[in-house]
Amino acid sequence: MRLRPYIKSKDFHYIAGWIDNERNHALWCANNFPYPVAEEAFHSFLEKTMEKWTVSAFAATDDSGKPVGFFRYSVNTESNEGFLASVIIDPDLRGKGHGREMIRLALRYAFELTGAKSVQLNVFAENQSAKRCYESLGFTQRSMTKDAFVYKDEMWSRCNMVIAEP
User: Fold this and answer.
1) What distance in Å separates the CA atoms of residue 93 and residue 113, rounded to the nearest whole number?
2) Which of 115, 128, 54, 117 is CA-nearest to residue 85?
3) What is the model's pLDDT at position 38?
4) Is 71 in contact with 98 (CB distance < 8 Å)?
5) Using the 8-state DSSP alphabet, how is residue 110 labeled?
6) Who contacts 114 (Cβ-Cβ below 8 Å, separation ≥6)?
7) Mean pLDDT of 92-108
8) Which of 56, 117, 120, 123 is least crowded, fewest Cβ atoms below 10 Å from its Cβ?
């Protein structure tokens, strides 16, 4: 697996295809843009977060260059804390170690290249498979915000997780 910057023309149709229902969409992006994922809305969101918080988008690819995962990353240079967001893996590859491998590479980038001393992320407590993946890599829960997000008739809790530089 390799990481590279997200390329609109090559990567969008893969990512949009990974979001197969409204619930998974909400778990992934907290409805920061509408479902189904439209190219213009997605790229507008990426552009706004890039300008406001210097968030960069990345694709994880297999050895042939095909996208298998996606995430966004930023670093707060004052606190030296990185932030991972919008983490997703091709659903056909979930449960096979690809998510862990992508996050390992993202952490290596964060610690070695951006100088982060820690990296945080938010995950809905209802997304247990993602939470277990992060825990298996050494992330620990820093805080839990109960009922932070409304999805239809459900209230989801937001878990903030952090990992320190090894």
Assistant:
1) 27
2) 54
3) 96
4) no
5) I
6) 73, 75, 82
7) 97
8) 117
